[in-house]
Amino acid sequence: TVDTAFSFPDDVGGLGRSLERCVGMGKCRSFNGAMCPSFQATREERYSTRGRAHLMHELMRHEVIADGWDNEVVLDSLEHCLSCKACKSDCPTQVDVASYKSEFMSKHYESRRRPLAHYAFGRLGDVLPVLSRFPKLTNAGLRVPLARRMVCRQLGLSENRNLPLLANEPFKVWAGQHCEDTRAGFHWFNTKSSSEVVLWIDSFNGYYRPDLLRAAVRLLTNAGFRVGVSNRRFCCGRPLYEHGFLKQARARLNEILHEFHDRLPEDASILVLEPSCLSVFKDELTNMISGDERARDLSQRAKTVGDFLRENGIEPKRKLESGILHLHCHHKSVVTGSNERGWLMDSFQKLSEPENGCCGMAGSFGMKSKTRWISERLFRRNLGPRISESDDSVLIVANGFSCREQIEAETGRRPLHPIEIAERCLPAD
Question: What pTM was computed for the model?
Fold first, then answer.
């Protein structure tokens, strides 16, 4: 046995028992499904779900892999994992490599120096609030070729990819200035309504795309709901897991339970625009803090806007003509039972979904020099060609921040978030 941050509640015996889920049938070596994208790109066993599970199993046995958590072969295998979570849903025995990766990265770097990129991307929830104080200066630095080249080299990033630019004004500032009321830890919009819903302010949209959060407030208030947003900054800590900052991740979750959940209006749904953040509430939260009833409650209340609209009988009032849909890999693998896809399908006369797996970006994975080629290969298998072959009148819909960054960088087309589709299909009266 080994002490782990995750509880692995479905596996009595913890991580060691969970690793025995892999029985070697090899579905992860398929070239057609969502699993395993890194194997599909490399065709190497060590980069498959089965290969990684076996490497971790040998690590735990301390026979073939004698140096345990220090092993560089295991590190390389897991660094090429996109943490897409497809294995947790597509594998017949639900092997959970994304969690194994988090545990390994945490223990591998317990007593060694981390790369600078780990702090820049893993601690993004701490970095963005600081950079957002000087958005014009930060963005100017990213636009200057020499400065951008230096940043890329320091962080091990591909110089062929542009870093996303910060919004001039974070959503939190706008919310404080435009809300109608502030009480009990929340800014409130449309205070005349008695039907309350809470909008989660994720770090990606909060600092990069606050226009999407403003659109969500408009949509929900126009639909007659009272919308609350926290007047404190919270972050679910999604990037922490990929880099193994699990102590910090647990602290984030506990803060959310104590300072956010405990102030929630009774029975109010929590709407999350970013699927990678929603997956924290659906997966990591109940895995890491499995015995807390508040964790279960928060997990059940968190949902997409499409889920919420359908639950409340709000259907599209008009249909758009044609679109291409790409849902974030975490949405496909973790957010089970979601109505988001169905609501979007009903919003179009024709909406196709060419890619059943990851687009290849997966957070910072597609930006790194070491793995950029895998990202490009994955994008070009289905999604990229379908977008390139489509007419400019065809709308591209993607609910993940990193997915939209990938699509725009590779095709020059600006994808729309589902909230933008909902606004078009639910025009204000």
Answer: 0.95
